[in-house]
Amino acid sequence: MKIGTVIGSVTFNALAPQFKGGNWLMVSPMGTEELTGKREFGQASTPVVYDRLGAGVGDKILYVEGAEATQPFPYPTPLDAINVALLDTFQFQPPA
């Protein structure tokens, strides 16, 4: 699982039926610099994450990537990342 900040959304002209009812989010992954408040947005790639939980721009989320992202679906689904939690608050203590 990874923590990220939603920085935008993606709109598609057409979707496969298994994705109806969800949204696609652009997410900025959060590393140590972002979690400690030293930098607002990450410098890494920006994954596009499938969301059925209703996250919006500015929300902090937990997302998973890879084969684990397909677990909520009962059949093979072409998906690389999915939102699994909306974060209200969190604490981060960098390793010493």
Task: Describe the protein.
With 96 residues, the chain is mainly beta. The protein has one domain: OB fold (Dihydrolipoamide Acetyltransferase, E2P) (Beta Barrel), CATH 2.40.50.220. The protein has one helix at 32-35, and strands at residues 2-10, 23-29, 48-51, 60-65, 81-87. It has a 5-stranded antiparallel beta sheet with strand order 3-2-1-4-5, with no helix packed on it. The chain starts with a strand and ends in a 9-residue tail after the last strand.
Put the structure in a nutshell.
The chain is built from 1 helix and 5 strands. With 96 residues, it is mainly beta. The chain is elongated and about 45 Å long.
Keywords:
about 100 residues; OB fold (Dihydrolipoamide Acetyltransferase, E2P); elongated; 5 strands; five-stranded antiparallel beta sheet; mainly beta
What's the topology here?
Layout: E1 2-10, E2 23-29, H1 32-35, E3 48-51, E4 60-65, E5 81-87
Antiparallel strand pairs: 1-2, 1-4, 2-3, 4-5
Quickly count the helices: 1
CATH fold-level name = OB fold (Dihydrolipoamide Acetyltransferase, E2P)
The radius of gyration over CA amounts to 14 Å
Morphology? elongated
**Major beta sheet, specifics?**
5 strands, antiparallel
Query: What is the CATH superfamily label?
Result: EutN/Ccml
**Unreliable stretches:** none
